[in-house]
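Reading a protein record of the kind used here takes only a little practice. An example makes this concrete, so a full record is given next.
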Amino acid sequence: MVESTLEEKDLGVWIDVKLKFTSHVGHVAARSNEILGLIKRTFIYKDTDVIKTLFTALVRPHLEYANTVWYPRLKK
């Protein structure tokens, strides 16, 4: 029996039944906030250069992955 779902993850991109990427943006933003919170909790000495490097290395790739797919369609 084939089950129906309201959203599906394919190649790391969440797509819903109406082919909108709103759920993908929500998942990506939540994951990025989790990683940013982990960085804030882990490091006591928060130098600007260190935080910028960690953000660039750990958070930014999550935000930039597949943004060419959803960005032109979603303008909020």
Notes: The longest helix spans residues 22-42.
